[in-house]
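Aim 2, interim progress. The first record below pairs a target sequence with its structure tokens.
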Amino acid sequence: MSKKISTLSMIGAALLTAVLSHPLVHAESEHQQGPGPGHPPSPADTAENAAIQARLGDTSTLMGSIAIPESVDTCGDEPGVPRLLCLIEILKSSVSDEVLALMQLDYSVAEAKKWSNLPAGAFPSRPGVFLGELKVEQRGVVKAILMEAAGLKENEGFDELLQTLNADDYIGTVSDDYKAGYSSFNAKIAFLGTPSQTGLWELYYGGHHLAFSNTYKEGELIGATPSFRGIEPFHAFEMNGRTNIPMLQERDTFAALLNALTPEQLKQAKLEGTYRDILAGPQADDAIPEEQEGLSVSQLTNTQKVLLLKAIATYVEDINAIDAKKYMDKYREELDDTVIGYSGTTDLNSEDDYVRVDGPSLWIEFSLQSNKSTNEKGNHPHSVWRDKTDDYGGQTE
């Protein structure tokens, strides 16, 4: 990394005010609850936000092309939390005290809830250090950490995380809206609580259209949600030496399910009203309805249930294979007590198209809304996987 301070830092707090009042920010965050980007910050918040703004950068990290350093070989190749902890220690021991203070934070649910779908410049409260503030070799260790914690299938898990970074780099080439906030430089990684085999801690990795939050306790994963994914552009795009299509499979699997329903099933699955965004997004942890609405999965054929499980897997398989199987087993056992609902069209390719899965534990939403950042005609998705019992590892404070 040769450039740590972008043009945005020179403008400081004045640009922050312009960014946070930009109509596109309001459009993307209108579903949020509580004080959000559209509310005037306090003097203390203004100073803190200006300091964070000064750290933003516009240099691509190109995570996909970064080599994993040989130093990680000391952690062995046996997958699991012990290897994850070893990789994290390599990263932490290699950074400066200043960077470590940004990366290693105390655990609290309040801190864990500081995730967002908004660009870095519009939501400076995310915890952690920017990827672009790390040296190249350190980014290689971050890559190894994420590959250990996330799934490794094509267009899922780690590959999806990379493509989301590529999308921000792409937006940075076509958009004039607070451009310095659109960059793979500006994704963040943090450890909430000290990673260990005995304590409670969270691996947080997030940025624009991205929240990956794994919570661990006593050496085991106890929560993989909230897990947010969005992407713009939604169509296939070329960036950083590859074709990127990270979320088409989520849309395609849900569309296949909806189009496999009979007319009577579709009638039961149809939700009242129009959904312009997901409900249970950032700063909306209590937005999941208490009552289920839609078509009971118990009324689906075995073939239709297979399609539903395939759609669910596009979210659960964003985490490592061992833990993903545990979640899939749980959701499979709860399947007949789960309902599906949709609004808009069954092809899920039009503005305000929406689908949800609501089970005893599982909550998934997929929503299409108009493009906000690329100045292109069309739509882009917001999507979230939550677990009603395991969100934030089931912690309350």
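The second target in this work package is listed in the same format:
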Amino acid sequence: MDDHIYRVIEIVGTSEKSIEDAVQKGVARATKTLRNLRWFEITRQSGHIANGKVEHFQVTLKVGFTMEDNA
């Protein structure tokens, strides 16, 4: 079995709908420029309130992906 070496980066997903939608949007965007995504971890959740209502959700994610061999 090959060893798996991962790299971890931090991204922030945003949504006007929900925390879950912010996660989905963040991961979807990351897949456009990163290969071999394997997992994510939510490290922070926050939002913006205006006129007494939640207007915007923000989720900070750690995203892990498998590093490729150069061989």
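DSSP finds one helix and three strands in the chain. This observation will shape the mutagenesis plan for the next reporting period.
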